Amino acid sequence: MNTDTRSWETALQKAWDGERLSIDEGLALYDADFLLLGKTADRRRKQVFSGRENIITFAVNLNLNFTNLCYIGCDFCAFFRKSTDADVYLLSQEEILNKIEQLVQIGGTEVLLQGGLHPACDLDYFVELFKTIHERFPQIYIHSLSCTEIVELARRHQISVKEVLETLKSAGLKSIPGAAEILVDRVRGIISPRKPDTAQWMDCMETAHQLGMESTATMTFGMIETHRERIEHMAKIRDLQDRTHGFRAFIAWTFSPAYTKLSHLKQTGGVEYLRTVAIARLMLDNISHITSGYVTEGMKMAQVALSFGCDDMGGTLMQEEVVAATGSGVPFTNKETLIRTIRDAGLIPAQRNSEYEILQTFDEEAQS
Predict the structure, then answer these.
(1) What's the pLDDT band for 115 if we cut at 50, 70, 90?
(2) Which residue of 43, 86, 317, 324 could cross-link 332, Cys pair, CB 3.0 to 4.6 Å?
(3) pLDDT, tens digit, for every residue of 132-163?
(4) Among candidates 23, 17, 10, which has minimal Cα distance to 279?
(5) CA–CA separation, 333 vs 342, rounded Å?
(6) Cα–Cα distance, 318 to 334 (Å, whole number)
């Protein structure tokens, strides 16, 4: 990049003063002094959570990848399998319910169901599954299915995305995860040409928000995108949030290239990750929660991110398999590890629910 010093200093001062950044100003922050950027992002976090700025939250949840069969075959995915592969699977409803029972037994509150696109998993399948989960475990919040799955259900049944979401909401679906990768069609056309394009993803999210369903927004970076395209991604999410106020949190992940069709790419480093989440805190001035991603970054880097604008450590993510398929990161953890990690950063751990309401804080006398 060729951004001059005055450009990033001006952008950083605007961010320090709480002003909204343009795309060019967000881009300039990739050249900003690293520690000053982190300090500014941390200041913004404390301003957003004034009165509880020392509290860092997490959820006890289950990330259940119910099938690995998928016809899309994205270049960045090491998880998907073809129907002819020996290790292809589809969990039975009873297997899913048994895993949720295990979540309930440890005080968990949320299930995230995501997987490939399996021909047996039509709209009726999900309606029956969600109704059964809701009836058997009314305390469990169903935060499931990405826009890819929702758009595909609409296509298969020749109905609108709105009709799919209304049907799933009636069956018990409460909110949907981001799974956005990079919201730039140049990038999507190369790494995932069969997935919904940017406009379809945005429409799915906006429709969900209009129906009263909140969601998270994500960004997987470190593939073939430019710094500007990352900032454009954030700006699109910010613009939609201005219209709908439906995003609860933003989660940025670095791409794990091992065992994917993009395995020739180098893993994005920790400094780049910290810089990007700090910029996200400053660009996304209308999204309160910025999550630190231990799943791909590892627990120590995620801990450092708590000083770079992040206020949340996601969840325990029991059973996660998508990132695990790349052999990198820490795909899932437990409550005790998250409590210890947050406390070791000099902050106060707190368990939350899916709506980011604090259920319990863990002070110094709590067992680590």
Answers:
(1) confident
(2) 317
(3) 999 999 999 999 999 999 999 999 999 999 99
(4) 23
(5) 13
(6) 8
- Parallel, antiparallel or unpaired: strands 348-352 and 358-361: antiparallel
> 363, exposed or middle or buried, with CB in 10 Å at 0-12, 13-18, 19+?
exposed
Six-digit token pair at 90? 């589809």
* Tokens standing for residue 173: 């679906």
Partner residues linked to 252 by β-bridges: 219
- Burial class, 2, CB count within 10 angstroms (exposed 0-12 / middle 13-18 / buried 19+): exposed
* Inter-residue contact 88 to 115 (CB < 8 Å): no
Buried b / exposed e across 241-274, counting CB within 10 Å, b at 16+? beebebbbbbbbbbbbbeebebeebebbeeeebb
Taking the CA of residue 61 as centre, how many other CA atoms within 13 Å lie in the half-sphere pointing to its CB?
A: 26
- The encoded tokens of residue 205 equal 């999210």
| Interacting residues of 39 by C-beta distance below 8 A, sequence separation 6+ | none
The pTM is what?
Answer: 0.91
Q: What pLDDT digit, counting tens, does each position of 274-309 carry?
A: 999 999 999 999 999 999 989 888 999 999 999 999
Residues in the chain: 368
CA dihedral 163, 217, 17, 344 (to 10 degrees): 140
